[in-house]
Amino acid sequence: MTSGSNRTVWLVLCAVLFGHTLMVTLPAGGGSETGIVRTVILAGLTPIEKLFDVTFYGVGSIWNNYFALLDTRRENERLKAELSQLGMEMEQNREAVGEADRLRRLLDLDPLVGAERVAARVIGRDTTTSRQTVTIDKGRRHGLHNNSPVITPDGIVGRIIHAGLFASIVQVVSDPESAVGVIAQSSRLQGIVRGDGTRYLELEHIDDHIELLPGERVITSGTDQIYPKGLLVGIVAANGPDRDLMKTARVDPAADISRLEEVLCLIFAPGTTQLFEELEEDVRTGSRIP
Amino acid sequence: MDHAINRYGTFRTLAKFALILVSIVVAQGILSLKFRVFSYFDLPLIYSVYYGFTMARPSGSIAIGSVLGLMQDSLSGAAVGMNGFTKTLIGFLAASASSKFDVDQPIIRVLALILFTFLDLALKGMLSFLVSPGATVVAGPALGFWVLSAVFNALFGLILFGYRSRFVNVAA
Fold first, then answer.
1. What ipTM does this complex have?
2. Which residues of B touch A60 (CB under 8 A)?
3. From CA A69, how far away is CA B74, in angstroms rounded?
4. Which of A94, A111, B87, B106 could covalently link to B69 via disulfide, CB atoms 3.0 to 4.6 Å apart?
């Protein structure tokens, strides 16, 4: 390489590195807004991801429907027995469910009341090794926006951090930069659940002499203004080490975040979560009687 | 006539590269979703090093690394430009190293891939810290992850380089 072309290469390198640094530091790069570069690349790449996903899904369903049906008769017998057992249990639970439903309606505090639900399919996982995000096949065209909560029937998955036109990036609760305001269901202890990049979550709470017991359910508190109150986050697995004034606990996420396929995205009208807070406050203080 | 043929050739080369780059990033996202082990691999990093070592063109490596990084950022939770920065630098370093070292030696390739994986993760950590100093730094699980990622990248890169060497030998 001649010294002239050598200098050109160095100049190009410096210019490109400067351009990337500028993108990282600009608010659209790392902030809550989805920048134009990401929007354009997302719009271009996600259709290809969807195509691959459909192909994988097709091959998987051929396998499941034609080749994996060995031993079906025995499985069928077992399922029939299980079904009748579940039928009896359901009968016993129906009354309790009805009562809970009536109470929830009376209180008007169902966490999903007023939320529009959009079903989405997970089509990809984070392409970098340091973050925990997934790509879903719905975006702004489907009504989603940044900070929309994402859940499964088992529990919360995370929130949308970059809503593209036809696809979005969801930050999973296990992401090292994720934080969710939570409350322990029986002890009513408030805290923050953070991801640490592993399959477990870490619950941080102030040491106020209340012990969290393994098996306790941890639900959203609604204080983060993103997730409505009352959604299941996970189950306390064990108490962790103390950190200054804070105590920690390891939480097993309720949603199977390593095997996500379909998710529900919630869209709240502006101010709905604040409305829940106010309603609950009214009920607590007695100004609103259910 | 010659001019038209040249233009067609350039277009074909660009289209081929675009297809390869898109396939790498999309494959990374889909394979990580379907097979958990792929979250340890960094296919764009491996390709940046592979291109730098085999083509030895610094300007081309800068472009390839930059585009791969930007696409990788867009399909992840990372700030746009984060992987663009690291992959650009790694592509350039790989291309520059190919003129100074004998990168055909498997041991050099393995060491380079391990080193570049650590450099990539360290640079991203530093950039994250500069952008948001309050970001959580998780040292314990991260170190294990770095080592595993480096080992997986080195192994996969070795297979890729081995495959290319065989292909070149057969062609020769």
1. 0.87
2. none
3. 40
4. B87
